Amino acid sequence: MELPGPSLAPGALRYGLPPLFAGIVLTPLSGPIGLTLAALGVAAILFHRDPEREPPESGFVAPADGSVSVIREEEGRIRVGVFMNVTDVHVNRAPADGAVESVTHRAGANKPAFSKESERNERVEIDCGEYELSLIAGWFARRIHPYVEEGESVERGEKVGHISFGSRVDVLLPERVEFADLRVKEGEDVTAGETVVAVDTGE
């Protein structure tokens, strides 16, 4: 189900207001420290911005804003990973319609999400049957927030979670999707819920 609300992801005020208020209080006493804290508070709030998106009518869309960092085959299926930079929106979206079969948290390390070591990082796996999503924490990320639960239905482009201060989201596409169906390449910038990463010949 789509979360109602304004243009901020959950947690924005919890992370942003304390340093912002502390900065306001401390600025008259210690300008540099106060201004730094206030700037950190504003940055945390902006980090959790949640703009509206208009998904296309077909295809598998990017699950995250950022740069395509992974395209590889795994046991006959293609994995596409999107690395989210600090300036990207960190709200994650469903690549296609589906039914959530399971949501699983896996503890792990917090290595940089663009490195090979990130395969052992903490993550939340969202299994939607035909495709699977992996929300992967990075070295700075410590909070993965799934929005969906087992048994729920999702639509293409619908919000399914966000990662506070991190870092990569992968989609494992169905077996029927081939490399010729991909519409992105490594290094390409994509927009969650809007950029088509692969056409779906089964639609």
From TrEMBL:
<keyword id="KW-0812">Transmembrane</keyword>
<dbReference type="InterPro" id="IPR003817">
    <property type="entry name" value="PS_Dcarbxylase"/>
</dbReference>
<keyword id="KW-1208">Phospholipid metabolism</keyword>
<dbReference type="GO" id="GO:0016831">
    <property type="term" value="F:carboxy-lyase activity"/>
</dbReference>
<dbReference type="InterPro" id="IPR033175">
    <property type="entry name" value="PSD-A"/>
</dbReference>
<feature type="transmembrane region" description="Helical">
    <location>
        <begin position="20"/>
        <end position="47"/>
    </location>
</feature>
<keyword id="KW-0444">Lipid biosynthesis</keyword>
<keyword id="KW-0443">Lipid metabolism</keyword>
<keyword id="KW-0210">Decarboxylase</keyword>
<keyword id="KW-0456">Lyase</keyword>
<protein>
    <submittedName>
        <fullName>Protein sorting system archaetidylserine decarboxylase</fullName>
    </submittedName>
</protein>
<keyword id="KW-0594">Phospholipid biosynthesis</keyword>
<keyword id="KW-0670">Pyruvate</keyword>
<dbReference type="Pfam" id="PF02666">
    <property type="entry name" value="PS_Dcarbxylase"/>
</dbReference>
<keyword id="KW-1003">Cell membrane</keyword>
<keyword id="KW-1133">Transmembrane helix</keyword>
<keyword id="KW-0472">Membrane</keyword>
<dbReference type="GO" id="GO:0008654">
    <property type="term" value="P:phospholipid biosynthetic process"/>
</dbReference>
<keyword id="KW-0865">Zymogen</keyword>
